[in-house]
Write a structure and sequence with these properties.
By secondary structure, the protein is mostly helical. The chain folds into two domains: 109 residues, no CATH class; 48 residues. It starts with a helix and ends with a helix. The protein has nine helices and two strands. It has a two-stranded parallel ribbon with strand order 1-2.
């Protein structure tokens, strides 16, 4: 045991890898599992097509073209619906303890490239990557379709029901007027999108 500990002390990166790797492996396994379950040839998408929720060329993953191309999901996802939306969980955070240790100059420098500037830059970069990903997938023979107006209306109706349920629970999580908060956010979003 002493020899093993001595060897690990001399090779700390091995120990770091042994501690960190399981976190990435579980993420990778979950990603592969969901990609398999929701692939265009998967059972879930087949059932959704059968009951009419998805068209014959509908797809199960709402993944931007850039991500599909980069992660090679195109090997299992042949059909893509252009819904003009995506979810991006890009959120750089630092702890208060770390932030407080930074000099005022460093904090100012970080804030000068954060917030709206970073969001706008990230959005522009993502749009460019998404266009390049779509072009690559089209060149490889992937089928793109525009969802029908009826599908968007059904999605809108589901969204309204979800928002009503969320608003009804607002007081339980300390928000007296959640719909006003949502309207404020949507107005700000639309104003920023117009810039």
């Amino acid at each position: 045991m002493q020899a093993l500990l001595t060897w690990l002390a001399a090779n700390p990166y091995i120990l770091l890898f042994a501690v960190v790797a399981p976190f990435f492996v579980t993420y990778l396994i979950r990603t592969i599992a969901w990609t398999t379950i929701l692939s265009d040839d998967g059972v879930v998408v087949d059932v959704l097509r059968t009951v009419g929720i998805l068209g014959d060329d509908g797809r199960g993953l709402a993944t931007p073209a850039a991500v599909i191309a980069a992660l090679k999901l195109g090997e299992v996802q042949k059909y893509l619906s252009l819904t003009k939306h995506s979810y991006g969980a890009f959120l750089p955070l630092v702890s208060k303890k770390f932030w407080d240790k930074l000099s005022e100059a460093d904090r100012k420098a970080i804030m000068s490239v954060s917030g709206e500037k970073l969001s706008r830059l990230w959005g522009q970069r993502f749009d460019a990557q998404n266009k390049a990903g779509e072009a690559k997938l089209r060149a490889e023979g992937h089928v793109f379709n525009e969802p029908s107006k009826a599908l968007f209306e059904r999605i809108g109706a589901v969204r309204q029901r979800m928002l009503a349920d969320w608003a009804a629970e607002g007081p339980s999580f300390g928000v007296d007027k959640p719909m006003e908060m949502l309207e404020f956010f949507e107005q700000r979003y639309k104003a920023q999108a117009g810039k």
